[in-house]
Amino acid sequence: MRSLMIFLVALGPACGAHAASVELCHVQSRFAIVVHGGVISQSSAEEKARLEIMKGALDRARSALRSGATALDVVETAVKTFEDSGKFNAGKGAIANTSGFVETDASIMDGKDMRAGAVASMTGIKNPVVAARLVMEKSPHVLMVGDRGEAYVRSLGAEAVNPSYFVHNKPDGPTHGTVGAAALDRCGHIAAATSTGGITAKATGRVGDSPIVGAGVYAADDVGGFSATGHGEIFIRLSIAKDVADRMRYAGQSMAQAMQADITDKLGEMKEEGALIGVDKNGNVQAAYVGEGLFRGFATDEEAPVVAVHEGPLASRPR
Ligand code: ASP
């Protein structure tokens, strides 16, 4: 349902509160959140801890969405939780590059107005996803990179940390564990976010798909929201997130069909590992992956949070 903004205090749960006015909208009961914690090529010792963190994040996201929180706030909060945990390849747990230091990439996109923000090659930012949102909301830009970009996001308010904050300061951290989230809120708005330390043995200065709109992240209210994980170079070359959205938008494919074509079939043929999670405008949740497993989980207004890494659901009940 198309949202109607009414700048009066009354009538229903708020979707985004501002100082002098409250944005209200026609409220739908439907909402959904889907998260991932990376595709894996072998079982990981972190499985239990990661799944517990994801379950906790989904529980909190579900009650926030039920109370009228925006999809944008909810995906940022979920990804920030994963970054802070130190258990994923993002934020505190980001892996080091071949020079032995961390360079993080992150993005966020608001499907309401197609705004996006991203950061890449950040070496001392506590929460790259928060920095990405600052770029989106407090600057006229989309993507800030490297030392000079880092100085800029700090001037916008991004929190800085010393290199000792990061768990992995040698290039031998976990091989996978990029994180992401996509959500539909009760206003009918969609948002998505992705955050990573990149791929193992990445060259210093290498940037993957995670901060690239249309590759590792995409959100548009008329289609859905998506976050990717896997071999970033492939996701950039194939514009995977945007291609899945275009298949749905222009070819009328379901989210499951579009992900089957781009992830299962295309990546499968290329013998590449990767995954995509998504939520569509009707509140359906879908994940697809090629690999040994995908840390994933979802919750909707109808379904309590579920998390899985190997066997387990890849989609919510259709509606
Ligand atoms: N896509 C990320 C990158 O290439 C890595 C991953 O998802 O494992 O930087």
Overview of this protein structure:
There is one protein chain. With 319 residues, the protein is α+β, with helices and mostly antiparallel strands. The protein contains seven helices and 14 strands. The strands form three sheets. Strands 6-5-4-8-7-3-13-14 form an eight-stranded mixed sheet. Strand 5, helix 3 (128-138) and strand 6 (143-145) form a beta-alpha-beta unit. Helix 1 (47-66) runs antiparallel to helix 2, helix 2 runs antiparallel to helix 3 (128-138) and helix 6 crosses helix 7 (255-270). Residues 1-13 and 16-22 have low confidence and may be disordered. Bound molecules: aspartic acid (ASP). Aspartic acid binds at residues 38, 176, 178, 196, 198-199, 208-210, 216, 229-230, 232.
Quick overview:
With 319 residues, the protein is of the alpha+beta class. Helix content is 29%, strand content 26%. Strands 6-5-4-8-7-3-13-14 form an eight-stranded mixed β-sheet. Strands 9-10-11-12 form a four-stranded antiparallel β-sheet.
Mean pLDDT: 91
First-last Cα distance:
14 Å
Structural class: alpha+beta
The best one-word shape is globular
Q: Bound compounds, please?
A: aspartic acid
Number of strands: 14
- Beta-strand proportion: 25-35%
State the share of residues found in helices, binned by percent. 25-40%
| Order of secondary-structure elements | EEEHHEEHEHEEEEHHHEEEE
Q: Main beta sheet, described?
A: 8 strands, mixed
Number of helices: 7
Q: How many whole angstroms does the radius of gyration measure?
A: 18 Å
Q: Strands across the major sheet, in which order?
A: 6-5-4-8-7-3-13-14
Q: Uncertain regions: pLDDT < 50 for 5+ in a row?
A: 1-13, 16-22
